Amino acid sequence: MSCVLGFDYGSRLLGVAVGNRFTGLARALAAVPVRNGEPDWPKLDALRQEWLPDTLVIGLPLTLDGEEQAASRGARRLAERLHERYRLPVALIDERHSSQEAAQRFAQARAAGLKKRSDAAAIDAEAAAVILERWLAQPTAPVAHDATSP
């Protein structure tokens, strides 16, 4: 298989994107609500069933100095839960500046008339696409089966 799902962890929304190992491209899919620390599992289950990924990639939020923070622990917990639930390899990748890049992409799409202000919730999914493209661009795209390695 060549399909990979990517995630941008957030305490309220979980951005989701799909990518292809052969093309190295990713596209935003959805912003899944998170309530009380739990993502909308039925929505994630449906996305997994639709795309049948062979790998999951989670953005690891780090400080500008590369240190872990509270959000890093949340992303690691999500990685563990996804691995337990779907029994797929999970990779964590540094997501620094992915939200800024996603916001720039969104602004460019708005300027080109491709997006509206009301589409702003999709920035989380666009950030997931940025994260996934970074992972796909790595020469050997590392995978951590236990979701504890960065």
What does this structure look like?
It is built from four helices and six strands, in the order E-E-E-E-H-E-H-E-H-H. The protein has helices at residues 41-51, 70-86, 98-111, 123-137, and strands at residues 3-8, 13-20, 26-35, 38-39, 55-60, 90-94. A six-stranded mixed sheet has the order 4-3-2-1-5-6, sandwiched between helices. A hairpin with a 4-residue loop joins strand 1 (3-8) and strand 2 (13-20). The longest helix has 17 residues, at 70-86. The protein is globular and about 40 Å long. Residues 146-150 have low confidence and may be disordered.
Short synopsis of the structure:
The chain is of the alpha/beta class. Helices cover 38% and strands 25% of the residues.
**By helix and strand content, what is the structural category?**
alpha/beta
Global mean pLDDT: 84
- Output the strand order for the largest sheet: 4-3-2-1-5-6
Rounded to the nearest angstrom, the distance between the terminal CA atoms is: 23 Å
Gross morphology is: globular
Oligomerization status of the protein chains: single chain
Largest sheet: 6 strands, mixed
- Which sequence of SSEs, written as H and E, runs from N to C? EEEEHEHEHH
User: Which blocks of ≥5 consecutive residues have pLDDT under 50?
Assistant: 146-150
In total, the number of strands is 6
Strand content: 15-25%
The helix fraction, in percent, is 25-40%
Task: Report the C-alpha radius of gyration, rounded.
Answer: 14 Å
The tally of helices reads: 4
Which helices and strands, and how do they pair?
Elements: E1 3-8, E2 13-20, E3 26-35, E4 38-39, H1 41-51, E5 55-60, H2 70-86, E6 90-94, H3 98-111, H4 123-137
Parallel strand pairs: 1-5, 5-6
Antiparallel strand pairs: 1-2, 2-3, 3-4
Helix pairs in contact: 3-4
